[in-house]
Write a structure and sequence with these properties.
Shape: globular
Largest sheet: 7 strands, mixed
Number of strands: 24
Strand order of the largest sheet: 17-19-20-15-14-21-22
Length: 514
């Protein structure tokens, strides 16, 4: 069994580029992809590989019989050791000048970037994404790290004021040992959005990846940690018990979590015991509003991309679409035609537009939503088709589906479906669409589509969300100079930009009275 530090490139296919964001194109012939040997993933504590109290298996969601990784399982004892290692390293890392921390992470970014082609096939086998999606996650994660490196020294510099009465220095100090609990769907980008500002601000960290896709991220983090002092970056693996031990640990001063609302509420309650700082990026029921002057030729493929990339398993994916009634029939037919071009299959097959859902439970949950939508009077139109080589019954696959005929308060419209099942609803006036969009406890992202951009922006300003895109809504819609985070039950705090750095510092005012 290969250790994650030495994982080979694996069964990547050189038949043509994987298709990540739209219907399959003629990228190359269908290719059967052989299974690879499982990798072994250790904990990383104090700069060294460590054993857990046992192991757990990670299985390929596209071939559920295949074991992708065997992972060391951390219990409270291992979590305590990781937090203790971070505590021992804290003073030395904090006292390094910000420019030195940035220089260390610049070198680490170069090393991590060089591993993208090696780790991408492994990530696709863990989370079911296409090879292009996995490479994008790895490379964008490293680009995000470099963006933070460029921003941090200036942000962290003290601001001084001197008058006849006093000398005042406003300084930013690290919070302390920081726990990062991260998801499986875009593990590298979503980890780096927390890890980079935490480390650059002078904190030491313990990362807990998702049990569903920990291996490629562990390989990435191992490469970063190898260029940092021991204990600055630690990694533990495990289920909710490991997460609970990390959140409740008295030496952890900050917790940053991306995941479900329910788990976020539990983390917030546990952190209250000793008033830890908490950042939460939680679920969304992200609405798109298509105005009557929208350019459907452009909007439809972009909305398809926003709804169906990674089988709809993206926190800010398009979850529901409100369409001006005068354009509804045309939009529906165009969207169905676009979705019908999708090919669903194994992530490493270059024919694949999107891969499986992450688990059988999630596939069955989305199936149940579709069944209940039919019972509620909706028309569920299944589209697309399997690739030529996919073993459909061996994985957790679903075809893309578009739903019309539901009431605004139907279950599928009001929940976060996290799958390739998209409801469309008509509206008469923009006021009605805005009311529908805001009638939710979620408020992560949203979008407005129209050729009159002043009008579209005016509509966007009325939506209750952390981010609203105009004439865009997909992974490429984000930029580093745009903060990301939710309102209402979609979270607390922001990631990216100086606001993301601010989540990992304490303000310290030092005043000398003359």
């Amino acid at each position: 069994m290969t250790d994650i530090s030495h994982v080979p490139a694996g069964p990547a296919v050189a038949a043509g580029p994987a298709v990540a964001a739209g219907p399959a194109v003629a990228a190359g012939p269908a290719v059967a992809v052989a299974a690879a040997e499982p990798v072994r993933v250790h904990l990383l504590i104090d700069g060294k590989p460590a054993r857990g109290r046992g192991t757990f298996e990670v299985r390929d969601p596209g071939r559920a019989r295949d074991v992708v990784a065997v992972v060391e399982d951390a219990g409270p004892e291992q979590v305590d050791a990781a937090v203790a290692a971070a505590g021992r390293a804290a003073a030395g890392w904090r006292d390094r000048p910000a420019e030195e921390r940035a220089a260390a992470l610049t070198v680490a970014a170069d090393v991590a970037e060089a591993a993208a082609d090696v780790l991408a096939p492994l990530l696709s086998r863990e989370n079911g994404g296409t090879l292009t999606e996995s490479r994008m996650d790895l490379l964008r994660g490293t680009a995000l790290l470099r963006d933070f490196v460029a921003l941090a020294p200036g942000f962290l510099a003290p601001h001084t004021v001197e008058t006849e009465q006093h000398w005042l220095s406003l300084e930013k100090a690290p919070v302390g040992v920081t726990a990062l609990i991260v998801p499986w769907n875009s593990p590298v980008v979503l980890t780096v959005s927390k890890l980079a500002p935490a480390l650059l601000a002078g904190n030491t960290v313990v990362v807990k990846p998702s049990v569903l896709a920990p291996a490629a991220l562990a390989g990435y983090l191992r490469r970063l940690a190898g260029l940092l002092p021991p204990g600055v970056l630690n990694v533990v693996h495990g289920d909710a018990e490991a997460g609970q031990a990390l959140v409740a640990h008295p030496a952890v001063r900050k917790v940053s979590f991306t995941g479900s609302v329910r788990t976020g509420q539990q983390i917030m309650a546990a952190a209250a015991a000793n008033l830890k700082k908490v950042s939460l990026e939680l679920g969304g029921n992200d609405a798109a509003i298509v105005l009557d002057d929208a350019d459907l030729e452009t909007a439809v493929p972009r909305l398809c991309q926003g709804a169906f990339t990674r089988a709809g398993q993206i926190c800010f994916a398009v979850k529901r679409v409100y369409v001006a009634q005068s354009r509804f029939a045309e939009f529906y037919e165009r969207l169905c035609a676009a979705a019908d071009g999708y090919r669903v299959g194994y992530g490493l097959d270059p024919q694949t537009s999107f891969g499986p859902l992450i688990s059988a439970r999630d596939r069955d949950r989305v199936r149940g939503l579709a069944d209940r939508a039919r019972l509620a009077g909706g028309e569920v139109r299944e589209l697309g088709r399997p690739t030529d080589t996919v073993d459909w019954d061996a994985g957790h696959y679903l075809r893309p589906a578009v739903v019309r005929g539901l009431a605004p308060d139907a279950e599928l419209v009001t929940v976060e479906q996290f799958g390739p099942l998209l409801p469309l609803l008509p509206f008469r006036q923009p006021d009605e669409a805005v009311a529908y969009a805001n009638d939710s406890e979620y408020g992560l992202a949203s979008s407005v589509w129209g050729t009159d951009t002043d009008r579209a922006i005016a509509v966007a300003r009325r939506i209750e969300a952390g981010a609203t895109f105009v004439n865009s809504h997909n992974l490429s819609s984000l930029s580093f100079d745009m903060p990301f985070g939710g309102v209402k039950q979609s979270g607390l705090g922001r990631e990216r930009t100086a606001l993301g750095l601010r989540e990992y510092v304490e303000e310290h005012a030092i005043r000398l009275v003359k």
